[in-house]
Write a structure and sequence with these properties.
Structural class: alpha+beta
Strand order of the largest sheet: 5-9-8-7-6
Number of helices: 8
Radius of gyration: 17 Å
Strand content: 15-25%
Helix content: 25-40%
Number of domains: 2
Shape: globular
Distance between the termini: 19 Å
Number of strands: 9
Largest sheet: 5 strands, antiparallel
Length: 205
């Protein structure tokens, strides 16, 4: 599923020096098939520049959201040797985020809150199954290392008689130099989709 990816990204990757891409993106290059492979959030992705497609080799359900493939190729092209800052921020703390992340770009955290509601134990189990590590935030929260230099936190607050359950996503401050606003949105949507849909209808994470 790569329909949302501009073919220009594949052309840019094809024109790049494989050595530099592999160093910065912590990936592998096959000179025979001219494909890149890298591991992101516990799954292997194969990027075929000539075929202009990306494939996830894993068998986990649900399959990655289409937006996640866009994030994968953008990350590979823009990866930098930077340090995680260890400071959590929301999308509204990213420069331009206050005006960008609303309306059609409102992050669908309701996929998570509507799935789990006040069931913190089910939320915790799902996050552990997805490779998360517990954080002392909100009523329950877990850290996911999407890549070694891109940690995110998924949070859940229980609701009460006045307010429904609420979910949120936090990012390490270093993300402001890694991702543009539209790619951050693509990543956030994919995170909400995976956490909110994982394990449904008998599917295993």
């Amino acid at each position: 599923m790569t329909n949302s990816i501009d073919h220009q990204y594949f052309q840019e990757l094809a024109n790049a020096a494989p050595g530099q891409i592999c160093r910065n993106g912590r990936c592998r290059f096959d000179p025979v098939s001219c494909t890149y492979s890298l591991d992101i959030w516990g799954e292997e992705y194969i990027l075929d520049c000539a075929g202009k497609k990306i494939a996830c080799t894993g068998t986990a359900e649900p399959k990655p959201h289409e937006y996640f493939y866009l994030f994968v190729i953008y990350y590979l092209l823009s990866a930098q040797d930077i340090q995680v800052k260890g400071e959590w921020i929301s999308e509204k703390d990213v420069p331009g985020g206050t005006t960008f992340f609303r309306g059609p770009h409102l992050i669908p955290t309701d996929l998570i809150s509507s799935r789990f509601g006040n069931d913190l134990e089910r939320f915790k189990k799902c996050c552990r199954d997805l490779g998360g590590t517990s954080l002392n935030l909100a009523d329950a929260a877990f850290r996911f290392d999407i890549t070694p230099d891109l940690p995110v936190a998924v949070l859940l607050w229980q609701g009460d008689e006045d307010f429904p359950a609420e979910a949120g996503i936090l990012y390490d401050r270093s993300i402001t130099t890694l991702l543009s606003l539209d790619i951050l949105f693509a990543l956030a949507v994919a995170i909400c989709f995976r956490v909110g849909k994982a394990g449904q209808s008998g599917m295993e994470v």
